[in-house]
Write a structure and sequence with these properties.
Layout: E1 21-29, E2 34-43, E3 56-63, E4 65-71, E5 82-89, H1 94-97, E6 101-108, E7 116-124, E8 134-139, E9 152-160, E10 165-174, E11 187-195, E12 198-204, E13 215-223, E14 232-240, E15 248-255, H2 261-272, E16 278-283
Antiparallel strand pairs: 1-2, 1-8, 2-5, 3-4, 3-6, 6-7, 9-10, 9-16, 10-13, 11-12, 11-14, 14-15
């Protein structure tokens, strides 16, 4: 058995897709009270883009802290990227460091839509000898923040070809992911109209305080000439309002004729039933 293989029991390795692996180094300087993380390279990453490649970068967290993350540069069109980037977590007492989990998430950078997670590695720092830099190769695991845990949104679309308009009605959400320490969220919804990947117009709902099953019932009207419909995307983002730091994204929905199967079905239903509000539940995605 190779080291580390025993914790993979119960997974039939033939069914698990190969997500590639990442090489990185970790060490701690007691003199400087600094944790050093070096992201070296990755190998055999899966292709995420239509062009058969990926534009990978790495996000680095020390969990449970999700607010402070560091990121590598994006390596364009490269499934075996070399980063060789060094990150310093300075002024970090050792007794705090050993309570943290080093979490690396490899993502495929996408200019126009959400960055696609490729895979992740987590390493509890209390398991390591941090007195000198140690280098690891780790297999990437599927990202655990799966779409199922973000909640769902009910919305309706109403297309009026003679008025060249679409009415988006944000009806309600259910089982939203709690983003705040108190185990709740303060959700609101942003609606962006995109044409050929350019932002045209933005609308947003009111904020619902401390509520994971909010009812919004707010309608927004967008002017969209019929000939532009094919190149139009409506991006719906459920946000958690945060007074002290920046607002967190709970999840997104991309509505167009070329997004995911559920979204495309809703778009086609809307066009097939003009002047009728067509409602559908959508799973929020990362």
């Amino acid at each position: 058995l190779s080291p580390g293989s025993e914790d993979d029991e119960g997974h039939d390795s033939s069914t698990r897709e190969n997500l590639g692996r990442i090489q990185f180094s970790v060490g701690y300087s007691f003199q400087e009270s600094t944790l050093t993380v070096k992201i070296l390279k990755a190998q055999e990453l899966p292709a995420k883009d239509f062009s058969g490649t990926s534009d990978p970068f790495v996000k680095i967290y020390l969990l449970p802290d999700k607010k402070h993350k560091l990121e590598t540069k994006v390596k364009r069109k490269n499934l075996n990227p070399h980063w060789n980037e060094t990150f310093l977590f300075e002024g970090f007492p050792y007794e705090k460091v050993v309570q943290r989990v080093l979490y690396l998430q490899v993502l495929d950078y996408d200019r126009f839509s959400r960055n696609d997670p490729i895979g992740e590695v987590s390493l509890p720092l209390n398991k390591l000898d941090l007195t000198q830099m140690q280098t690891f190769w780790k297999e990437l695991k599927p990202c655990s923040d799966g779409s199922g845990s973000r909640g769902e949104l009910l919305l309706s679309l109403c297309y009026n070809p003679s008025a060249n308009s679409i009415v988006v009605n944000i009806i309600k959400a259910r089982n939203l992911k709690a983003m705040d320490i108190g185990g709740t969220s303060d959700p609101y919804v942003k609606v962006w109209l995109m044409y050929k990947d350019k932002r045209v117009e933005k609308k947003k709902t009111v904020v619902m305080k401390r509520c994971l099953n909010p009812v919004f019932n707010e309608s927004f009207i967008f002017d969209i000439p019929t000939e532009k419909l094919r190149e139009t995307t409506i991006i719906i983002t459920v946000m958690d309002k945060d007074k002290l730091s920046r607002n967190d994204v709970i999840g997104k929905i991309y509505l167009s004729w070329k997004s995911g199967p559920g979204e495309v079905k809703h778009w086609k239903d809307m066009i097939a039933h003009p002047r009728q509000a067509v409602a559908q539940w959508h799973q929020l995605k990362a």
